[in-house]
Design brief:
single chain; mainly beta; four-stranded antiparallel β-sheet; three-stranded antiparallel β-sheet; 7 strands
Length: about 90
């Protein structure tokens, strides 16, 4: 008896902090990586946000279709990478 693996698709959104914004939208994605999109959280199974390569607790951000909202008191330093990983199973 065996089970077949499920299809897993991983989508990424990459941007860089400007040092003062708490909201990042589709248009803020790095154009060098092609067109990127922040998917609706209802369409994916898991979401992970990394700021400067550190996984953020879910209470630190809100994801809506087309935008990431940081709800922390401070903002990331200018130039820090922000990566949103969206996993669909």
């Amino acid at each position: 008896r065996f089970s077949l693996a499920k299809k897993v698709t991983v989508y990424d959104f990459y941007t860089v902090s400007d040092g003062f914004s708490r909201i990042y939208k589709d248009k803020d994605g790095l154009c060098e990586l092609g067109k990127q999109k922040i998917l609706d959280p209802c369409e994916v199974s898991y979401i992970n946000l990394f700021i400067n390569a550190v996984l953020q607790p879910y209470k630190n951000y809100i994801v809506r279709e087309g935008e990431i909202i940081l709800v922390t008191e401070d903002v990331p330093i200018k130039g820090v990478p922000i990566i949103l990983q969206m996993i669909k199973i």
